[in-house]
Amino acid sequence: MTDKNKIRNFSIIAHIDHGKSTLSDRLLEYTGTITKREMVDQFLDKMELERERGITIKAQTARLNYKADDGVTYVLNLIDTPGHVDFSYEVSRSLSACEGAILIVDASQGVEAQTVAHLYTAVDVGLDIFPVLNKIDLPAADPPRIKEEIEEVLGIDASEAVLASAKEGIGIKDILEAIVKRIQPPKGDEERPLKALVFDSWYDIYQGVVVQIRVFDGCIKRGTKIKFMATGKTFDVDKVGVFAPGPKEIDSLGVGEVGFVIANIKEVKETNVGDTITDALNPTEEPFPGYKAAKSMVFSGLYPVDSAQYENLKEAVVKLRLNDSSFSFEPETSLALGFGFRCGFLGLFHMEIIQERLEREYGLALITTAPTVIYRVTKTDGTVVMVDNPSNLPSPQYINFVEEPFILATLHLPAEYLGAVLALCESKRGIQREIKFLTTSRVMVEYEIPLNEIVLDFYDKLKTLSKGYASMDYDYLDFRKSDLIKLDILINGEAVDALSLIVPRERAFARGKDLAEKMKEIIPRQMFEVIIQAAIGAKVIARETIKALRKNVTAKCYGGDITRKRKLLEKQKEGKKRMKQVGRVELPQEAFLAVLKVS
Amino acid sequence: MGVQGEERTIGVYLHVPFCLRKCPYCDFKSVARPGLSEAEGEAYADALIKELSSVIEREGLSNRPLETVYFGGGTPTLLAPSVIKRLIGSVRGAFAGCGTKGPEITIEANPDTVSFERLKGFREAGATRISIGVQSFDESILGTLGRTHTARRAVEAFKEAREAGFDNIGLDLIFGVPGQSIRDWEESVAGVLALQPEHISLYGLTIEEGTEFFRAYKDTKRLPDEDDVAQMYESAVRTLKDAGYRHYEISNWARPGYESVHNSRYWRVKDYIGCGVGAHSFLSFPEWGRRWWNTPSLEEYIEGVSAKGSAVKGMETLTREEAVLESMVLGLRMLEEGIKGEGFRARFGLYPKEAFPATEALLSDGLMASSGEDLILTHRGAVLSDAVFLKMLSQMA
Q1: Range list of β-strands (E), chain B
Q2: Angle between the B81-94 and B116-125 helix axes, to the nearest 10 degrees?
Q3: CA-angle at B238, arms to B233 and B239, nearest 5°
Q4: What is the SS3 assignment for B14?
Q5: Which residues of A have a CB under 8 Å from any CB of B?
Q6: CB contact under 8 A, A557 and B201
Q7: If we measure between CA atoms, which residue out of B383, B378, B395, B272 comes closest to residue B325?
Q8: Beta strands B169-175; B199-204: pairing state
Q9: Which of helix, strand or coil describes residue A9?
């Protein structure tokens, strides 16, 4: 067990390519936690997908031993955080496990939007924050200007900002010293009953669920009978350990320590992020505040392009679910797409990540249907049904009323974008709750908005019109009555269930027209004419025609180079594999997501 | 169908990689060499002869009857008639004979590199057929294509070729050129018909990676509309039919009996040896056949051939599946001949309809027509042939 006064728990807050991963690597290297030889670049981002997207999806931690100038060897726990609005709750839990945060700002580019959102969370959690100006070796670096910007935009004292270049290894020691001196040691009481925060967990095929925790009070060791306070489930601890950065078993984790627990747990859904672990025999009175059960907010259908791959998809979603309790699925059947799954996600980004992982890690080609929220439908006979697939909306004569989920969106933005952001919120059926100037140049806006509107393209629009500077966080509010109807899309006269969507009545006409137009753009010309119609019940409200392909012939002289001609054809065949045949018409994946591209 | 034993003849392709200048749309292997020296021409011819004889020896082809020789480019007419004569002599001498008709010997020509004297020289050297790259009769389209010659010069070259004794002349045009209207195109087609050539090739402009056009027309909006291009092709199909030409291959028309024997070898999957920079070869044995191709670099080619008689850059052995596909795709390009069911079955052990289950739908959609087990593309099938082939490939047995 480490003396809590010698522990520092910190996180790194940075914009996507301002050098968070590189700095993490340098800290690991400098403290000898990992040698250069062992260094796979950017060690902390483990998933291939994370490396490619340059973001962290799962939180990662590393324990560093650092002998400071005062002669004392400190234990520094670096807790890496996920980087997207869909995971803002996970971010807040990871940050809650820390006492401090390093704010990295690119010394030439300055403060970027994403940084701001995370920083506010860090401030809310009450962390000690100090800025680091990274990439000072670049010719365009301008530390005085960027310091000024940090103070103005973020309201953080930047006079003692550390100047660094993670790439060149400049300023690494200064950062480590600052962590020791400027971040407070953990508080807590060894004598009190165990209280530990779960901030991540995942499934390991050999050990079962691995739970990442931060101990606030008491101590946890092998043999401790632990209880998850939200679920009430109890387990006997098998192993505790730390990541240094590979897993290393130790005797116990005490106050202020960060590490993992293995307790023969079979499913990640038993170990929710934000839950509190306590001693089952001697429980703490109050759990760590702020727990929220993970809840699927967005639903879409996942179908294999090739129906023969259904079993493979099934196996893949089961495996993925083992590791991601915020992802849910249920079998569903579509007339157009065959057998597939209705899946629930935290948000649109989470949905994309899941789809990409399924395709990449399991070699599947998938069709994703348009994301939707869950609707509460009260029927004329008084029964209530939850509808997470628009094609399941009962016929109008059986509907008494429909309710849809509303959220409270909290937006932070520079004042200059206020007009545009308000207009966006209004256009998304938003109800204004508050506008507050935090400084003369920064505004916080709160809106109640139907989640359905957020799911479509709100976030992208917000980012675009604020040049990326507006940040958003949201909380679920309640279900509210809305005048909603089902919009169907017909292809050559046949309604395609996977293309149906639920829309506000007053926008149905415009939405149907836009959607039909967009589908016309997306669906390639076929060997016959394709008619796209948007309809409400039996009433067609929009119609577009995709003319039959006029010409598709290579009237070219290839000489004797037949190989090339054949390879071209084989390549086109590969491209065609992404097309789903619905009736006689071949639809590309984008056609099912066309609704994301309109409005 | 290239079955060893029955198929004894051979075709030879000789690639001449020199041009007056590189055309911005062309992705054939060529280098701009406006002042090609006699010595360089002779040295290149030496390399071609050396390569051919080493291939013949390696593959044991010397007893094959020579059916065709084809000088392609680049611009073969940049070589002196004496060089062409020497090459023809060497190729003919390398094989057992050529049957009673004598081989078809084609030379591609650029109007700017020929004169009556030179054409007479090529004819006397043994060329039986000439293919002149006219491309367009519209000066502004010729400019867009980066051609060095005028429309008038092309007409003169045709007349000179006739006078020089060529009784089998082919003319090439390109359609779908940026800035080209349907009317421009129809005038060019009329211009070609007025000359009454034996053979006409109409090629749709294809923007190929690595060409100047590829960079210039990244934005495809600057290219002619797909429907307009379709109309160009269809109007030419009608006009040439009315004028008595047979549309024997997707891009090729001929007066009866004047179909290109050499190019037909490609479509019938018959053996050919390609010599020169970037040239491709095909031999239908053993099993499903194999292809190889030479380096695209002139320097590497000369070096390789002088060192070891060969400058092969890549090769492939066809799988049965690839051979089936190629037979189909190439065979169907021949709009009159199509795929002969029995010949296909003799080689692959099943009928085309069995190998390609999509055939049934294509027949009922009117994209193909059948007579027993024989298959051809309909006119509409020809116009949509790439989509037809893709459909067949997607559902291969």
Answers
A1: 10-16, 18-19, 31-32, 66-73, 104-109, 129-135, 169-175, 199-204, 246-249, 252-254, 272-275, 280-283, 290-294, 312-317, 368-371, 374-377
A2: 10
A3: 95
A4: strand
A5: 527-528, 549-563, 565-566, 569-570, 572-573, 576
A6: yes
A7: B395
A8: parallel
A9: strand
Q: Which residue has the tokens 């006997």?
A: A236
Strands B199-204 and B252-254: antiparallel
Helix (H) or strand (E) holding A533: strand A530-536
What is the side-by-side strand order in the sheet with A366-368? A328-334, A338-345, A298-304, A366-368
Contact A555 B386 (CB under 8 A): no
Chain A positions touching B387 (Cβ under 8 A) are: 527, 549, 552
Residue keyed to tokens 């590979």? A246
Q: Please report which confidence band the pLDDT of residue A295 belongs to, taking 50, 70 and 90 as the band edges.
A: confident
- Is the pLDDT confidence value at A125 over 80? yes
- The confidence band for A85, taking pLDDT boundaries of 50, 70 and 90, is low
pLDDT at A534: 96
Topology at the third CATH level for domain B320-394: Arc Repressor Mutant, subunit A (1.10.10)
As a 3-state breakdown, chain B gives helix, strand, coil percent values, each rounded to 5, of 45, 20, 35
Calculate how close chain B gets to A552, using CA atoms only, in Å: 4
Each domain of chain B, given as residue ranges in start order, spans: 5-267, 320-394
Q: Classify residue A79 by burial, with Cβ atoms within 10 Å: 0-12, 13-18, 19+.
A: buried
Contact present, B101 and B136 (Cβ < 8 Å): no
Q: Name the residue facing B291 among A528, A551, A562 (closest C-beta).
A: A562
Interface of B with A (CB under 8 A): 13, 28, 72, 175, 201-204, 206, 226-227, 229-231, 233, 250-251, 266, 272, 274, 279-282, 291, 293, 316, 322, 325-326, 329-330, 365, 367, 382-387, 389-390, 393-394
Residue B217: the pLDDT is 87
pLDDT over 90 percentage in chain A: 55
Checking DSSP bridges between strand A501-504 and strand A484-491, what pairing results, if any? antiparallel
Q: Long-range contacts for B279-282 (Cβ within 8 Å, ≥24 apart)?
A: B279/A559, B279/A560, B279/B13, B279/B14, B279/B15, B280/A559, B280/A560, B280/A561, B280/A562, B280/A563, B280/B13, B281/A560, B281/B13, B281/B55, B282/A560, B282/A562
H/E stretch holding A405 reads: strand A399-414
pLDDT at A15 over 80: no
DSSP state letters, B176-234: S-TT--HHHHHHHHHHHHHH--SEEEEEE----TTSHHHHHTSSGGGSPPHHHHHHHHH
Closest CA to B107 of B47, B161, B52, B177: B161
Q: Is residue B97 within 8 Å of B134, Cβ to Cβ?
A: no
Region B110-137: what's the mean pLDDT?
A: 96
Which of these, A419, A429, A138, A458, lies nearest to A298 by C-alpha position? A458
User: Across A425-519, where does the E strand assignment appear?
Assistant: 431-437, 442-450, 471-482, 484-491, 494-495, 501-504
Cα B265 to its chain centre, rounded Å, is: 10
- Please state the CATH superfamily assignment of the domain spanning residues B5-267 in this structure: Aldolase class I (3.20.20.70)
Q: Report chain A residues whose CB lies below 8 A from the CB of B230.
A: 550-551
Q: Are B249 and B263 in contact (CB under 8 A)?
A: yes
Measured distance CA(A537)–CA(A487) in Å, rounded:
8
What is the token pair recorded at A230? 């939200």
E strand residue ranges, A36-124: 61-67, 73-79, 100-106
Q: How many angstroms separate the CA of residue B320 from the nearest CA in chain A? A: 13
pLDDT digits (tens, 9 = 90+) for A217-232: 999 999 999 999 999 9
Give chain B's end-to-end CA distance (angstroms, integer).
Answer: 20
Query: What residue type is A110 in one-letter code?
Result: G
Q: Is the pTM of this model over 0.80?
A: no
